[in-house]
Amino acid sequence: MLAIIAAVIFGLALLLDLANASLGVLDGGTLVVAGLLCLALHMAGVGAGARSFGFRRRRV
To answer: Which domain of life is it from (predicted)?
Structure first.
């Protein structure tokens, strides 16, 4: 999910850069940093949900 958010933020940063526009304090550089933060959190496994390990304990 964070990777999708990062892609949207990068797309918005690209559009702002191509249009030479700014959203007040949110310029292209700020959005790139926000996108990199989301990408780093995604790669670290944040927001991945619960993971199951696929093995069961067997009773002897």
So the answer is: Bacteria
pTM of the full structure: 0.69
SS3 24: coil
16-33: pLDDT as tens digits: 888 888 888 888 888 899
The Cα 55–Cα 13 span in angstroms is 44
Q: What percentage of the chain reaches a pLDDT higher than 90? A: 15
What are 58's two structure tokens? 């067997």
Instruction: Please tell me the number of Cα atoms within 13 Å of 13 on its side-chain side.
Output: 18
Contacts of 40 (CB under 8 A, 6+ apart): none
- Domain that includes residue 17, residue range: 2-44
- Quote the DSSP letter at residue 57: P
